[in-house]
Amino acid sequence: MIKKVVRTGLAVALPLALAACSVTDFTQDRIQYETSDSRAPLEIPPGLSSVPGSDRYAVPSRPHTVWASQQAQQGASQDASASHGSIGLLPQGDVAKIVREGNNRWIHTQLAPEMVWPVMQDFWRTVGLSLTRQDAATGIMETNWAENKAKLPQDIIRATLGRVIDMVYSTGERDQYRARVERSADGGSDIFVTHRSMVEVVKKIGGDNETTVWQPGPSDPEMEAEMLTRLTQRINQEFDPQAVKQTPAEHEAEVEKLASYQPENSVSELEHDAEGVATSIFIKEDYERAWRRLALAVDRMGFTVEDRDRSRGFFLVRYLDQEYEEQKRSEQGFWSNVFGRDTPVEAPQYVIALQRLSDTECRVHVLGPDGKADTTGVAPRILTLLSEQTK
């Protein structure tokens, strides 16, 4: 049995809270990230690194190495003008605007990536997060894993004791964000922000014994909308001194509008061979839309991106599949026991390729790093993961 962990520390807090004279709302903000070193290490599921004991908010993450040619920032499809016909621009200032296409959202600005990159770097600091990985060549930056204290109950205990009680409260969740900037067809920038989560759960390990582990949680459209809205405001204020800052009510309404789900017909289908093995993903969209959909799926899955090229339609990624890792460790088996060393399994490279079939249809394949058929046996599982995110 697995259940989510939420630590409250009531035994310590209650006597102090009862002595309080008054209560006020602790925070009405949707996000409240901060750093602390009071978190104890936790056991992590196989395939993930241990949580560092010196950082309460660190969550396991695979090694992430990023590099790419400048070509990745350039490609512009001939379908761009056609696909923009049904895209709605949400008015949020003159410099940067949020674009919505179905349930996908991103920021568009006529500013070049070189201009918005330093603003994006500084933005994460202003919301209480730090960057652990960034590479201007790929246009990708990734934050640390952090706990959002705004998700804690705003009850009498926490409202009274504030930071003191935060030392013993825990949401049992951690958030991470990835931002990606691409050069748009007009020479400006398209900026995408995706959210990932990890959830701390209690797991039975035999008898009455329990342990805590971290497991991947769902992406939160509301948190993505929050960060997109804040980053849009930041860009507008940075490059337009006359930009009017949103009121809290306007900000809240904008986030709710962005986060709202719009029912739409599925445009992708996972294709299989005669034996039922996943072979590709069929996407019934033009190339530009399919690229955006696929790129957001890659971001949300947290794949290590080593290269990407929109004009040529590929991502070069690293991914360590759990079954593949266990297989390699079992192959090490005997000699690892003899020498007492556990050699880390290197994450293989894969090419996620987007093929244009027609003006309205595309297909996704997962190949080996040489562009030939995958030899690790993991490609069908990657396709399945991507299919869930591209529907």
UniProtKB/TrEMBL annotation:
<feature type="signal peptide">
    <location>
        <begin position="1"/>
        <end position="19"/>
    </location>
</feature>
<feature type="region of interest" description="Disordered">
    <location>
        <begin position="62"/>
        <end position="85"/>
    </location>
</feature>
<dbReference type="Pfam" id="PF06804">
    <property type="entry name" value="Lipoprotein_18"/>
</dbReference>
<protein>
    <submittedName>
        <fullName>Outer membrane protein assembly factor BamC</fullName>
    </submittedName>
</protein>
<dbReference type="InterPro" id="IPR010653">
    <property type="entry name" value="NlpB/DapX"/>
</dbReference>
<feature type="compositionally biased region" description="Low complexity">
    <location>
        <begin position="68"/>
        <end position="85"/>
    </location>
</feature>
<keyword id="KW-0732">Signal</keyword>
<dbReference type="InterPro" id="IPR042268">
    <property type="entry name" value="BamC_C"/>
</dbReference>
